[in-house]
Amino acid sequence: MELKELYQEIILDHGKNPRNFGKCKNFTNDAKGHNPLCGDRVHIFAQLDKDKKILDISFEGEGCAISLASASILTDVLKGKDFNLANIIINNFLNLIKENKPITLNSLNDDQKTTIMSLSGVKDFPMRVKCATMAWHTLSSVLQK
């Protein structure tokens, strides 16, 4: 299987079977994101401890396969991460999509890197960049509260 096909398969799987969909119990912080260009919406829920470690994270929303897959991937990868690492991962992802910079974090396993990289192709479609980054920007808002 070619890498492009693998990436498409990951996006389709997360889009059709989103992980962590729904409100997580005992969430402490939440934020909503909206892409007015296409109507995508996301609501991120996070249970943070006193040090802002992400104990649990989930989302609700509607939109295209890219936005749902991206939110699903985000929740899958960032659950259990502490505040500083979560912000580094968010910035790495945004740099990957916007500036084509590779993910270089040693704290992510190969599967997590591959899953995040599956969204890298959207950079070739400027109208889809907001779809892929909306949940990540929304999580930044959650962590800043």
Give the helix/strand class. Answer: alpha+beta
Count of individual helical segments: 5
Query: What coarse outline follows from CA principal-axis ratios?
Result: globular
Q: What's the Cα radius of gyration? A: 14 Å
- The average pLDDT is 93
Strand percentage lies at 15-25%
CATH architecture type: Alpha-Beta Complex
Structural write-up:
- There is one protein chain.
- The chain is α+β, with helices and mostly antiparallel strands.
- The protein has helices spanning 3-16, 65-78, 83-99, 110-117, 126-144, and strands at residues 29-35, 40-48, 54-62.
- A three-stranded antiparallel β-sheet has the order 1-2-3, covered by helices on one side.
- The radius of gyration is 14 Å and the shape is globular.
- It starts with a helix and ends with a helix.
- The mean pLDDT is 93.
Summary, kept brief:
The chain contains five helices and three strands, in the order αβββαααα. With about 140 residues, the protein is α+β, with helices and mostly antiparallel strands.
